[in-house]
Amino acid sequence: MGVPVPVGVVALDPVLEAGTRSTLLACPELTVCEPGNARVAVLTVDRLGPAELDMVRTTRAHLTRPAVVLVAGALASGDALHALAAGARGLLLRREADASRLAHAVLAAAQDDCTVPTDLLEQVLDRPEGAERGWAGGSLSDRERSVLRMVADGHETAEIAQQLAYSPRTVTTVVHDITQRFRLRNRAHAVAYALRAGLL
């Protein structure tokens, strides 16, 4: 057996955090440490919403850039796709996250692999076109979609404004609104997120 993988635990609820730590301590391949020193971070949540997706992004953006395994009490339709688009490398439902499965997901994430249970994978693959997203604000208006498509095609703000008959300020506002609503960093991140999440 090699060196144990350092794994940290992040949770909004101290009871969930304690339970996750206890489960991880039963895995000899892992060593539990502070999230800032972890190679993999396990995020344990009840449900997935904007705050929890922010936790995934914030954890991934840490200086050490740990891989993220998300353990959720419940996932609504579309949540698995949002979690993967936000940067999660593994997904587990809490009721299925025994020591063996959790260790498997953490070790896979440490090797830059992704683990998703079959039923959640089917949810991602079988999502009907135009289906309602798993949390409020998870879709784009026709105007937002048109602007983002042109951004994806490499057009500048002035070109987009001219082709869509908007003012440059309107185009800038549309892109800003998208990045704020989905908590994205810039135009490129907005395009990448929209493509991965099936919003374009």
Automatic annotation (TrEMBL):
Gene3D superfamilies cross-referenced by the UniProt entry: 3.40.50.2300
Keywords of the record: DNA-binding, Transcription, Transcription regulation
Pfam family, one: GerE
DNA-binding listed as a keyword: yes
Limits of the HTH luxR-type domain: 133-198
Transcription regulation among keywords: yes
Annotated signal sequence range: none
InterPro entries per the UniProt record, alphabetical: Sig_transdc_resp-reg_C-effctor, Tscrpt_reg_LuxR_C
Entry-linked CDD domains: LuxR_C_like
Name of the protein this chain belongs to: LuxR C-terminal-related transcriptional regulator
Source organism per UniProt: Streptomyces graminearus
